[in-house]
Amino acid sequence: MRRAFSLTTSAALLLALSGCASSGTQTPTAPAPRPAPLQDAATQAPLSDQAMLATLWIQRSAEFHALSLQAFNVAHDRLNLALARRHAQDKPLAVVVDVDDTVLDTTSYGGWALREGRTYDSQSWADWVDDAVSTASPGAVAFLNYAHESGVDVYYITNRKAAGKQATIANLAALGFPQANAEHVMPRTDSSDKTARRARVTAEHDIALLMGDNLGDFDQAFQQSTTRARNAEVARQADQFGRRFVLLPNPTYGEWEGVLYDGNWGASEHEKRAMRDAALNAWQPESGTVNQGK
Fold first, then answer.
1. Distance spanning both ends of the chain, measured CA to CA
2. pLDDT interval class at 176 (50, 70, 90)
3. Three-state SS string across 7-41, please?
4. Other Cβ atoms closer than 10 A to 77
5. Superfamily (CATH H level) for 47-250
6. Shortest CA distance to 279 belongs to which of 263, 264, 257, 251?
7. Where does the pLDDT of residue 9 fall: very low under 50, low under 70, confident under 90, or very high at 90 and above?
8. With contact defined as beta carbons under 8 Å apart, do 48 and 113 qualify?
């Protein structure tokens, strides 16, 4: 009996609802508009905005500060080991360092570009270099002065252009870096390849260690056209890292980025964004797998 009553009640309710719908006495509510996908907002912003968090990480995070100190502490220990192994007949020792984002922090240029919605260009970079406003990377001044006081020659091999050499020397000297002079600051001339400049140092010195934020600061063999090939070369020279090579973190730019574009730095923002997206390893919730980027 209860089941029959329930069915009768349900039927009556359905008829009543049907009548309301057909009489037009109740206006259906329009569905709320769907929010725009997050990627739509991202594609409307300048590509340079993608560097903001990386720039802030270098400028503001205690973690970056600690990593920089760690790199120069490792360098200090490795230099002590090299000094302890010296013999009277050996060539003089040298330490070779990159400049930008190794011993000098260049992120104020990146901060300006972000504020202005701009990307790197050679003229604004040259103007920034001429202003000599870089700050020192944490630990850099103390380590290089220790090297200098230990009788070690310091060479600054940089891919800044020769036109900015005097401003770079002035910037380094003002911050207290040792041996900041025309002989020891070695800018690029006709090539960004640092092999020839390193060879000039090794002609008269034993290089105790090299420091940089880019693998090309250590060996041209790392100049490979794919991420896989670069990683393979890193694996081949694995025993050099933390020993002869001391690498500092830099997520804002570098040769690793150019590899994402197949070396096509002249690609449009739309093309670069697409190539960055294609390189991502991304979870696929539908299949419970990870899609490996190219």
1. 68
2. very high
3. HHHHHHHHHHHHHHHHHCCCCCCCCCCCCCCHHHH
4. 11
5. HAD superfamily/HAD-like (3.40.50.1000)
6. 257
7. very low
8. yes
Bridge partners, 284 (sequence order): 289
- Hey, what's the torsion of the CAs at 166, 172, 173, 176, to 10 degrees? 180
Give the integer Cα–Cα distance in Å for 56 and 76: 27
pLDDT in tens, 263-279: 999 999 999 999 999 99
Nearest-angstrom CA–CA distance, 31 and 286: 26
The dihedral of CA 149, 155, 160, 164: what is its sign? Answer: positive
The residue behind tokens 């739309």 is 270
Supply the pTM of this predicted model. Answer: 0.85
| Residue spans per domain, the chain | 47-250, 261-294
Helix, strand or coil for residue 267? coil
pLDDT tens-digit profile of 143-157?
999 999 999 999 999
- The full DSSP string for 215-245 is GGGT-GGG--SSHHHHHHHHHHTGGGBTTTE
- CB of 164 closer than 8 Å to CB of 129: yes
